[in-house]
TrEMBL record:
This is Eclosion hormone. GO terms for molecular function: ecdysis-triggering hormone activity. Disulfide bonds join C40-C64, C44-C60, C47-C75. GO terms for cellular component: extracellular region. It comes from Parnassius mnemosyne (clouded apollo). Belongs to the insect eclosion hormone family. Residues 1-26 form the signal peptide.
């Protein structure tokens, strides 16, 4: 009988504890300062390192500044870096 009452009490404690926990929105911008323009320029630099003379890094950085970091170039996504590729 003691084990049955223990299970019931444990169940109620479990529901009270986990029912009162508020889930956290885990955004990195909440922990550290997230500057989209800085990330955009870092992505441009990374693409320049990966693609070398095929990639126009300064044009990419100017685009980041002009668009205030709303456009994020992805070195593995051709559509996002196509405006910055140079024919050699």
């Amino acid at each position: 009988m003691a084990s049955k009452s223990f299970v019931i009490v444990a169940f109620f404690l479990f529901t009270i504890v986990f029912g009162s926990i508020d889930f956290v929105n885990a955004e990195p911008s909440m922990v550290v300062g997230y500057d989209p323009m800085e990330i955009c320029i870092e992505n441009c630099a990374q693409c320049k390192k990966m693609l070398g003379s095929w990639f126009d890094g300064p044009l990419c950085a100017e685009s980041c500044i002009r668009n205030r970091g709303r456009f994020m170039p992805d070195c593995e996504d051709f559509a996002s870096i196509a405006p910055f590729l140079i024919k050699i």
